């Protein structure tokens, strides 16, 4: 089944995933199979497509936590162990579709090429689906989740003084005016937990109640957006702040940062942009 030919919306969603996958690689944030992307494409699934796609469903895999608000929803996601640079040039051999079962207790795999037996969803599926579930429950407009490993953000979380949410955000906001404008609520911070676990998914979910982007200690970050570009932009913005900090330090200076008054003005500006 050629996913791209299902309809224009799905074709565009795949093109967008591919484009952002190439940015993640070019940024140097996607070593080997690092990072993963998921998009809820339920709104693009017409009855015709449903009939076609449901004919190719693979056996059901159970979810650790049932996700009733995602019952029957379809997602495009990157495969576990797949390289972002390969996803960028060929989504259909490096990514797949899943359909959550009608009772929300598990999911079915849908592959463009069913002979690819080793093509399975990203190991961070628990976090991706937990976030999508909350977005639907809350009636939010975001439909995409991007996870990547930005060197500069990981490096910051190796410095004990930035391993708490307030200190981390004070630093990120202070390094560049745009960060307060784009991410006024700051980044959520999740202390180190085992990658791919339900535990890290649960901790991440709590942070997405009040944030659009969440940093995982010594690992990377997650962001949500109405499309993959919006999610990418959030990560790119906070990574730039972290970069500026390290550039000043590498040049032998402790950066001055923006004053509280300047940050307060920028916060007002950000509220104006959002209203
Ligand atoms: P996957 O290859 O399973 O998507 O894992 C990559 C990753 O970044 C894990 O955190
Ligand atoms: Zn990761």
The run of helices and strands is: HEHEEHHEEHEHHHEHEEHH
Oligomerization status of the protein chains: single chain
CATH class category name of the largest domain? Alpha Beta
| Number of discrete domains | 2
Note poorly predicted spans. none
Number of strands: 9
Distance between the termini: 43 Å
Bound molecules: 1,3-dihydroxyacetonephosphate, zinc ion
Q: Any idea what the shape is?
A: elongated
Q: Roughly how much helix do the residues carry, as a percent range? A: 40-55%
Largest sheet: 9 strands, mixed
How many helices in DSSP terms?
Answer: 11
Order of strands across the biggest sheet?
A: 2-5-4-3-1-6-9-8-7
- Which structural class is indicated by helix and strand composition? alpha+beta
Q: Gyration radius, to the nearest Å?
A: 19 Å
CATH topology of the largest domain: L-fuculose-1-phosphate Aldolase
What's the CATH H-level homologous superfamily of the largest domain? Class II aldolase/adducin N-terminal domain
Indicate the proportion of strand residues. 15-25%
- Roughly what is the average pLDDT, rounded to an integer? 96
CATH architecture call of the largest domain: 3-Layer(aba) Sandwich
